[in-house]
Amino acid sequence: MSPRTNPRAANTPRKRVAAIRRTLRNRTLQKNASIFAALGDPTRLRLVAALCTGSALSIAQLTSGTDITRQAVTKHLRVLADAGLVHGVKLGRERRWELEPSRIDDARRSLDAIAQQWDQALTKLKAFVER
Amino acid sequence: MSPRTNPRAANTPRKRVAAIRRTLRNRTLQKNASIFAALGDPTRLRLVAALCTGSALSIAQLTSGTDITRQAVTKHLRVLADAGLVHGVKLGRERRWELEPSRIDDARRSLDAIAQQWDQALTKLKAFVER
DNA sequence: ACCGCACGCAACCTGCTAGTTGCATTTATT
DNA sequence: AATAAATGCAACTAGCAGGTTGCGTGCGGT
User: Fold this and answer.
1) Residue A19 at interface with chain B, using a CB cutoff of 8 Å
2) Looking at beta carbons, which residues of chain A come within 8 Å of B15?
3) B43 touches strand C (CB under 7 A)
4) Dist CA B126 CA B131 (whole Å)
5) DSSP sequence for B107-127
6) Which of B81, B67, B48, B59 is nearest to A10 (CA)?
7) Start-end of H helices in chain A
8) Packed helices B70-82 and B42-52: angle between N→C axes, nearest 10 degrees
9) pLDDT 10s digits, B60-113
10) Which residues contact A65 (CB under 8 A, 6 or more apart)?
11) pTM of the complete model
12) Which bases in strand D are touched by protein, i.e. have an atom under 7 Å from a CB?
């Protein structure tokens, strides 16, 4: 048997196996993954933190205090923008970048969902054990 | 002047520039970045979701329903474990993996901090504008 | 004792990602 | 008009991350 077609393992009920498979195939998470991926780089996370301090900042400002090039910062901003976490507006000869707080909330909701689902499963399990 | 030593841009007060630089150099975020990076892959996010459904699952179970190899799943679990999001216990000839919900909370707190900081900055700005 | 299942380890391939350098373009400033 | 500032664009490099294949190992059931 091919190693990837592993129908059932141990003694897990078929229904649960089906549920797990459904979860594993779920496509809803694909979108949220991009947000986490965007936040998953230390440099980018620092950029986000810097933008949290309030006003919209230019690339030059965001580059100052970093040990990478301005172009590298530009690329990171591009990634963050693609994830919808940030957007920039042209202002004269510079471009100011600011946060998109709604996306942060999206990510937070996603984590909330995970945590909640886990808690729920835990209480169910507890109920089952204590029955 | 080198393009990376860009001391001040536009007409931003020096104090704020210093604050931004401090934020950009902050190392506290480094750790959280690894959590987000771990969650930043669709496959891994699905694994987490599958583990949310309750019981601890074996690698074979987690592989079933995916179109990747068992070894790929193993690697992803390794990444998740390195981020502290998951841990496995040997159980006979198989190894069951389960969530570490405290780390999820860590990530959530991190996002909360960002959102809160942003809100705070917003209200400050609003207060300034409406003065 | 034997066979099969679940897993670990190591080597390898491949594409993307972070980062750089060099140059062009637009906008202020004097 | 000329210069400097802030940014954009393109090509290039190096390294890592996701994925596979192949094989070895330990545990379980019969």
Assistant:
1) yes
2) none
3) no
4) 8
5) HHHHHHHHHHHHHHHHHHHHH
6) B59
7) 14-25, 29-39, 42-52, 59-63, 70-82, 101-130
8) 80
9) 999 998 999 999 999 999 999 999 999 999 999 999 999 998 888 888 888 888
10) B20, B21, B22, B23, B24, B25
11) 0.83
12) 5-10, 17-22, 26-28
Nearest CA in chain B to A5: B64
Residues B115 and A63: their CA atoms lie apart, in Å, by 23
Given CA atoms B54, B56, B62, B65 in this order, what sign does their dihedral have? negative
Asked if strand C comes closer than 7 Å to A79 Cβ, the answer is yes
Q: What pLDDT digit, counting tens, does each position of A72-113 carry?
A: 999 999 999 999 999 999 999 999 999 998 888 888 888 888
Q: How far apart are CA B110 and CA A112, in angstroms?
A: 13
Residue of B23, B69, B94 with shortest CB distance to A53: B23
A25 touches strand C (CB under 7 A): no
Whether the Cβ atoms of residue A65 and residue B21 lie closer than 8 Å to each other: yes
